């Protein structure tokens, strides 16, 4: 049967999840978790939470699922070491550098790839296998059909989200909150600007929420998920109240245990009353069924809340035990207890001679009083004669000590042999000078052949075509003949096998010198090319992630656009000859498989320019799509262009500089490439009109 995994954003929610039937719970510690505003657990509270779960035969997974700065890595590993000592069953990790370090320095610790890692294809699962990740929490965009294919093609366990909030953007690739207000979803502080009013038809009205999808509910489809290969169904909700966790966990527990269709229908109504955003959907499991006509969450009925609170605080996870009590006058009382494979043997006070005949049932009844513990007496053998007497106080003390010993036997305490000293980085090979690019190269990513020609003509050393233009790459072969480099820019998401096959065919066509990959699932696709660039979709926020990517065959890495200039400087000092800095372009804020234009206006058969989203402040965010033969990926772009070209002399030195064009005209492409060349030659220019400096001087929380 599939594992039921419930959220625990506080001690109260953890109790609610466990007591309502969760097989496992996931919660955060004191650092590096994607719900930093939840209650979370630290110090003794974390140890107590782990013990509480293990006493009740429930697994506990700890979230380390954010991107990590270099200064935090030592602390993250120290924390991971503590998790081993106190028996965490696994950690969920997003950061590629941290995942690699844990597998290298703490191989005893089981690692699950967080949904923030963006695993959605067979290439991603191959990467997980290569670094020893046991389980991948699949992207919410994966369909049931694809789930079947992934489960048959990999040994990695597959976990899927089954209920709760649905992010509009592909997880791990959302920069909306980060760019809008320095609160980064990749750092656990998302401000959820997507839940605010927004429209594709100008300034939004009261009912316009085109970026705020309704919640997912898969309670009617659990058998299908299990048959497709899911090992675990995950419930979202670390920021929700304990009574919500109790109610939803109880409903899914009953469904997994064989509830009838009528019972499941009633459970769905109960969950709908507890919390909803207008209606539920099945997300992308059966195709694109996401809806964004949010009308707000309902107010739970008091009866539902009261029932959930009762269920959250009632001990239901009772473990059967057996006891044997031996009493002999003049000798210490002996109590033996067993729970599962664990036993406890204790001696108590000396047994005295009874003044009146004693009944064995009296002692059984006293031993059965295990209230306040998750233990239940199922079998009891009393070996005594009628003239034996042990006081109630002495017997109660024996019972309590036996219960404590049995429960403590379920507390995991490990020793860890970890090599102290400098953190080790992967050794990387040098770039082949004949196939690489000259120092300080200009690298433009463009949406059309015309823009590519404009970039090359203006002096770009390398140009990467996005998918929409890639089928016309043959028109640019004369530039390659003259020493220019032509690359393919892979998107953050290749959600279907057909899209992955299209990418593979382009890579094998011989028309490209290299490619920019933006997901770990693309590492194997680009491995044979001469030039391999790790794009911002791979979230290189620290030197260990850069090292990990270089060890996987990348020649260049584009650091995260969430880094400040001060944070980039030490990375450039160590890896300057392998870094490409983002220097111009609208940062993609969201990667959308659900098209808001298609939902509200119908498909416009667009290519590249897909419209605009306007928020409640009147800011306009362009939509740029990538068209595949079986669907689109839509990018929500920042309302302002990030431009650092005029600041080039003040930036950390790097191997190259990336210019990103989406909806710009050819003239704008040529002008910006020439501007970069001019500054490299010593010219002084003004900042690009109406542009932002991004995070150059604004650190994310």
Short recap of the structure:
With 701 residues, this protein is of the alpha/beta class. The strands form 5 sheets. A 10-stranded mixed β-sheet has the order 22-21-20-19-18-17-29-23-28-30. It has an 8-stranded parallel β-barrel with strand order 1-2-3-4-5-6-7-10, surrounded by 7 helices.
**Average residue pLDDT:** 92
The strand count comes to 30
C-alpha geometry: elongated
- Going by CATH, the homologous superfamily of the largest domain would be Aldolase class I
Which structural class do the helices and strands define?
Answer: alpha/beta
**Biggest sheet architecture:** 10 strands, mixed
Radius of gyration: 29 Å
**In which order are the strands of the major sheet placed?**
22-21-20-19-18-17-29-23-28-30
At CATH's second level, what is the architecture of the largest domain?
Answer: Alpha-Beta Barrel
**How much β-strand is present in the residues?**
15-25%
Give the fraction of residues assigned to helices: 25-40%
Q: What is the terminal-to-terminal distance?
A: 40 Å
- What is the number of helices? 21
CATH topology (fold) name of the largest domain: TIM Barrel
Structural domain count = 3
CATH class type of the largest domain: Alpha Beta
List unreliable stretches of 5+ residues: none
């Amino acid at each position: 049967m599939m594992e039921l995994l419930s959220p625990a954003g506080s001690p109260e929610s953890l109790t609610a999840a466990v007591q309502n039937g969760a097989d496992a719970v996931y919660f955060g510690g004191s650092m590096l978790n994607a719900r930093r505003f939840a209650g979370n657990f630290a110090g003794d509270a974390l140890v107590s939470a782990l013990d509480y779960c293990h006493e009740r035969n429930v697994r506990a997974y700890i979230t380390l699922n954010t991107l990590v700065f270099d200064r935090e890595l030592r602390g993250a590993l120290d924390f991971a070491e503590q998790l081993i000592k106190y028996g965490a069953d696994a950690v969920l990790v997003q950061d590629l550098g941290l995942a690699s370090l844990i597998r290298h320095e703490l191989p005893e610790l089981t690692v699950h790839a967080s949904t923030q890692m963006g695993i959605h294809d067979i290439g991603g699962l191959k990467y997980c296998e290569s670094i020893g990740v046991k389980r991948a929490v699949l992207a919410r965009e994966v369909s049931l059909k694809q789930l079947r294919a992934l489960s048959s093609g990999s040994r990695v366990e597959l976990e899927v989200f089954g209920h709760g909030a649905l992010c509009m953007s592909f997880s791990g690739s959302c920069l909306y909150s980060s760019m809008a207000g320095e609160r980064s979803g990749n750092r656990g502080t998302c401000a959820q600007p997507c839940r605010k009013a927004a429209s594709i038809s100008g300034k939004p009205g009261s009912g316009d929420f085109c970026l705020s999808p309704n919640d997912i509910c898969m309670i009617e489809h659990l058998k299908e998920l299990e048959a497709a290969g899911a090992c675990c169904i995950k419930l979202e909700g670390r920021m929700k109240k304990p009574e919500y966790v109790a109610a939803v966990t109880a409903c899914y527990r009953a469904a997994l245990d064989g509830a009838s269709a009528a019972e499941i229908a009633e459970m769905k109504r109960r969950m709908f009353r507890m919390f909803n955003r207008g209606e539920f959907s099945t997300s992308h499991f059966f195709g694109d069924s996401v809806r964004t006509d949010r009308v707000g969450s309902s107010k739970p009925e008091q009866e539902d809340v009261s029932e959930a609170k009762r269920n959250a605080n009632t001990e239901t996870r009772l473990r059967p035990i057996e006891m044997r009590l031996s009493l002999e006058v003049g000798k210490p009382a002996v109590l033996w207890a067993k729970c599962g494979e664990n036993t406890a043997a204790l001696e108590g006070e000396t047994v005295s001679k009874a003044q009146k005949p004693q009944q064995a049932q009296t002692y059984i009844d006293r031993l059965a009083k295990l209230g306040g513990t998750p233990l239940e007496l199922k079998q009891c053998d009393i070996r005594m004669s009628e003239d034996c007497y042990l006081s109630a106080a002495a017997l109660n003390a024996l019972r309590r000590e036996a219960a404590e010993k049995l429960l403590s036997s379920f507390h995991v305490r490990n020793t860890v042999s970890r090599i102290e000293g400098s953190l080790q980085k992967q050794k990387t090979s040098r770039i082949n000078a004949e196939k690489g690019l000259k120092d300080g190269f200009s690298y433009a990513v463009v949406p059309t052949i015309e823009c590519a020609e404009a970039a090359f003509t203006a002096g770009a050393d390398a140009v990467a075509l996005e998918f929409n233009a890639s089928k016309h790459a043959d028109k640019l072969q004369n530039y390659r003949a003259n020493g220019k480099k032509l690359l393919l820019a892979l998107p953050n998401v290749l959600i279907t096998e057909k899209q992955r096959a299209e990418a593979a065919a382009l890579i094998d066509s011989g028309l490209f010198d290299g490619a920019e990959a933006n997901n770990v699932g693309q590492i194997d696709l680009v491995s044979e090319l001469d030039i391999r660039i790790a794009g911002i979709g791979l979230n290189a926020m620290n030197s260990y992630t850069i090292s990990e990517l270089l060890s996987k065959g990348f020649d260049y890495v584009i650091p995260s656009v969430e880094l400040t200039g001060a944070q980039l400087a030490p990375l450039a000092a160590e890896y300057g000859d392998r870094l490409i800095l983002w220097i111009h372009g609208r940062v993609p804020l969201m990667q959308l498989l659900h098209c808001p234009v298609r939902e509200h206006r119908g498909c416009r058969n667009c290519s590249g320019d897909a419209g605009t989203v306007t928020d409640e402040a009147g800011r306009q965010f362009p939509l740029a799509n990538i068209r595949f033969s079986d669907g689109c990926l839509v990018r929500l772009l920042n309302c302002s262009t990030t431009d650092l070209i005029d600041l080039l002399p003040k930036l950390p030195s790097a191997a190259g500089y990336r210019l990103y064009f989406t909806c710009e005209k050819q003239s704008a492409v040529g002008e910006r490439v020439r501007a970069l060349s001019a500054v490299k030659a010593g010219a002084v220019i003004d900042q690009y009109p109406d542009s932002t400096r991004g995070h150059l001087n604004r650190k994310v929380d």
